[in-house]
Amino acid sequence: MTSRKTLLAGFTAFSAAALTAGLCINSASAGPLAFAQMQAQAVTQANQVAGTLGAASGGIYLDRGKAVVNVTDAAAKDKAEAAGFATKTVKYSFAALTNAKNSMDSVKNVPQTAWGIDTKSNQVVVKIYDAASPAVKNKVTAAAAKLGDAARIEHRSGKLATYIADGDSITNNQVICSLGFNVTKGGQPMMLTAGHCTNEGGTWSGGDVSGAQIVQSDCPGADSGLLTRPNGTGDGAINTGQKITSAGTPTVGEKIQKQGQTTGGGSGEVTSVDESVNFDVGVLNHEFGTTAHTDHGDSGGPAYDGEKGLGTLSGGDTQTSYFYPLTLELEAYGLTLA
């Protein structure tokens, strides 16, 4: 077993870097790419610390770019602060929140609802939309009530919708979506988008690409679609020129960028992770919610943070846009970023 002395010595070795990263992130002079790189460093280091806290870890989140480590007891607080991180003492461990979220996943056939983990509030946030039927509202409310203050209910106006219309991106001449990421599989160039788009079938085209065939389409459950790239060019970059060199896991509080053919570029913040979203097409699992503004035609478009790709757009409402994690898509299909 690693001694407390050894553990604290290890923390001290990178605590100065952690503090420096936090200070740099708050600097108004940091450019977007530099901010993204420092934000990613803070998340990596905070996750390393949280990983040593075991059952006392409440997860992490970002507050204006600075990583905060949630803890459930004084010993964990001391360890995290010795490593240079701000802490927040919370009631529920991340494992407990995960169990609470998983209990909500047992509630089936409840369209127009969603739930996921918000580490900033140390709760599972349960969203119920006006478009949900009275029976669905009652069913989800009752399930959330069983979790006590480990969950909070948010009543949302409007309707959840997968975005699959308008815009001018990749198309099968029936519906229009957006290209997420250029990828390769076994050395062959391919295109990654949303599964609810490729579920529509057909042959796809866009830009200098034509005759793209569907390799795989997964929705609901996941929301991933893979297309061949029989011609045309395209490296691993957003259409702004921003290179995408890796895939990363989103963190609550993380500042992100997005692109889509209807709304173009924009920014937002991650508000929830591991969210189960009950669209009318079915349940989409492991989504992450953001404050980014998107609309019809943006489906499949990318969310990213600097050089780190995060996910492809599924849909949302007027307040929240949901993305399916890029890490899961690459793993499921055996892909490499172009």
Automatic annotation (TrEMBL):
Disulfides per UniProt: 177-197
Know the name of this protein? Streptogrisin D
Kindly state which keywords UniProt assigns to this record, in alphabetical order: Disulfide bond, Hydrolase, Protease, Serine protease, Signal, Zymogen
Give the region (Disordered) as residue ranges. Answer: 289-312
What Gene Ontology molecular function terms does this protein carry? serine-type endopeptidase activity
For this UniProt entry, which residues form the secretion signal?
Answer: 1-30
Instruction: Kindly state a single biological-process term from the GO annotations of this entry.
Output: proteolysis
Q: Per the UniProt entry, what species is this protein from, by scientific name?
A: Amycolatopsis sulphurea
Q: Which residues form the active site?
A: 196 (charge relay system), 223 (charge relay system), 299 (charge relay system)
Residues annotated as domain Peptidase S1A alpha-lytic prodomain: 92-146
Query: What is a single Pfam family found in this protein's UniProt entry?
Result: Pro_Al_protease
Q: Which GO terms describe its cellular component?
A: extracellular region
Q: Which family does it belong to?
A: Belongs to the peptidase S1 family.
Q: Which InterPro entries match?
A: Pept_S1_alpha_lytic, Pept_S1A_streptogrisin, Peptidase_S1_PA, Peptidase_S1_PA_chymotrypsin, TAT_signal
